[in-house]
Write a structure and sequence with these properties.
binds zinc ion; alpha/beta; five-stranded parallel β-sheet
Length: 332
């Protein structure tokens, strides 16, 4: 099939820090373990240190190491005084501390977005609300959206609640980067807004299930039922789905995510679209990527089994090709 997109990753773990100093064989292994062995030929990074991620991309594009096409928003923009976790927690999670820009109003949103876009990022990422309960206003989000859209670049939002999603939809964002199971089922107002706005969702179901794994079984069930219900409602409302794992925070094996998408009622064809045609279209690459067709780039995945029988077969990859060259071969 056509090469897969992972539309929500991060190159924010310690393993990617100072990427210039990582020997090529080691960098190859890291890219293989996270992406190419699962058939990912394109990955959208939704917050990491841009200069470092750009260097990672340069090393891939030069042919020195084998990896996917890398797109990045650079560091995500946060509400002022976000109350981020202390260093000890970030260290424990394996994340590099990179102070993200904070924006207090529309003018700051415009300036921070312009600075990133001038530096060459492929989109803008906004955290609608933060652990301190600080939140962006709709006008602040709109300012960032206007700046990104002026250059034809997409805007991604990290919401924590259904209300965050609704505000982001009204502000004209392109991609909602998560479901929000902690805030309960998405109500009718939100579903109507989904129908009106042409917005895409990366459900990231597995990460919430994983975060809940220390809680009581009944609490875990509630999270999974709610997020699966949110994705089901989104699909029923005609919203676009882009596959995304939020890699870097959880085990990279995407088969759990595929299984949860099936639980939400998505069939094999819909899940395949979320990996191929939908992201290629959303990110303006459908003339080069996303399908197996004459004239398109030969980004391809060869699977060991048939995913129309068992969805987990999507994660069992024999070969991954980029531009007709093998970038992953099983058993090596
Ligand atoms: Zn993320």
């Amino acid at each position: 099939m056509a090469g897969f997109w992972n539309s929500h990753v991060h190159f924010m773990e310690r393993k990617w820090a100072d990427v210039a100093s990582i020997p090529a064989p080691e960098l190859n292994r890291q890219l293989r373990d996270m992406l190419t062995r699962y058939g990912f030929t394109a990955a959208f990074d939704l917050s990491s240190q841009w200069e470092n991620t750009r260097l990672l991309r340069d090393r891939i594009e030069s042919g020195e190491v084998s990896g996917p096409r890398v797109y990045s928003t650079g560091l995500g923009l946060l509400p002022a005084n976000p109350g981020l976790p202390p260093d000890a927690i970030l260290n424990f999670m394996g994340w590099v501390r990179t102070p993200a820009p904070e924006i207090a109003d529309a003018a700051q949103a415009t300036a921070a977005s312009r600075k990133l876009l001038d530096a060459g990022v492929d989109g803008i990422k906004l955290f609608v609300s933060a652990p301190s309960k600080a939140a962006l206003s709709q006008g602040t989000i709109e300012a960032a959206v206007n700046e990104a859209h002026r250059l034809g670049k997409p805007v991604f939002v990290h919401p924590n609640t259904g209300a965050d999603v609704l505000m982001a939809l009204h502000a004209g964002v392109d991609v909602v980067a998560h479901t929000t199971p902690q805030s309960g089922p998405w109500d009718e107002t939100l579903l109507v807004a989904i129908k009106e706005h042409r917005v895409a969702l990366t459900p990231t179901l597995w990460i919430w299930k994983w975060y809940a794994s220390h809680d009581r079984i009944s609490a875990q069930d509630k999270i999974v039922n709610t997020e699966v219900g949110q994705l089901r409602a989104w699909v029923a409302s005609g919203g676009t789905v882009l596959f995304g794992t939020d890699l870097g925070a959880v085990d990279p094996d995407p088969s759990e995510e595929y299984t949860l998408m099936v639980q939400a009622g998505m069939d094999f064809r819909q899940i395949l679209a979320s990996l191929t045609t939908a992201p290629a279209e959303r990110f303006g690459k459908s003339k080069q990527l996303g399908r197996v067709a004459a004239g398109l780039r030969a980004d391809l995945v060869v699977l060991k089994g048939d995913p129309s029988n068992n969805i987990r077969a999507l994660a069992e990859v024999q070969y991954t090709f980029r531009d007709g060259k093998i970038i992953y071969r099983a058993g090596q």
